[in-house]
Amino acid sequence: MRSQFFGNIDQGQQLPGHFALQNSKMLRVHLNGDVLARQGSMVAFQGQMEFDYEGAGGIGKFIKKAVTGEGVPLMRVKGQGLLFVANDADDIHLFYLENEGITVNGKNILAYDSHLQSDIQRVQGAGIAAGGLFNTTLHGTGWVALTTHGTPVMLDCGRAPTFADGQSAVAWSTSLQVGVNRTFKASALIGRGSGEAMQLAYQGQGFVLVQASEGPTVAPHTH
């Protein structure tokens, strides 16, 4: 598996390249150039830096983002020094891509190398019923930092047939074939008792990162 998972690095440990975990909740970027990060994620920096809004990257991406609702508002950070970013004290997990790609739920993106190619694409084989119709794809060689609710598990799909709840699957290799699993009975209630009857099914050589939650809960209406 060419992608490297760095979710359990000791606090403050330096990693190859310029992304490192300050701790499990905070990313440290050794900046000498520019990087793309989630808007509002900067918590501190040392050195000289500029923060600019990053557009959708062309009219095609702008339309995709508007139509699908996928993606995350980004800022481009330029300069030299140490940049610290975080998002709601979520866990942070690092991947180093080596001329390969991952598909990611846009809301889980924290930061990535600016030279990586990004796009919004339909999750092939999943369909509307799976709840995750579009994802963000990142491809190339470089660092990607993702956030998760709780400590996730990374599953090697080459070892066995692999299935995950569509809202819990954070990212997976673009080399995988994705479909829908409908093998359990309609009477089975999974995931918050919602009665949803769909799971994403993965086949091939690659990984799936699954968080320990289906995302933030929505408080019930009181009126």
From TrEMBL:
<dbReference type="InterPro" id="IPR016031">
    <property type="entry name" value="Trp_RNA-bd_attenuator-like_dom"/>
</dbReference>
<dbReference type="InterPro" id="IPR002838">
    <property type="entry name" value="AIM24"/>
</dbReference>
<dbReference type="InterPro" id="IPR036983">
    <property type="entry name" value="AIM24_sf"/>
</dbReference>
<dbReference type="Pfam" id="PF01987">
    <property type="entry name" value="AIM24"/>
</dbReference>
<protein>
    <submittedName>
        <fullName>AIM24 family protein</fullName>
    </submittedName>
</protein>
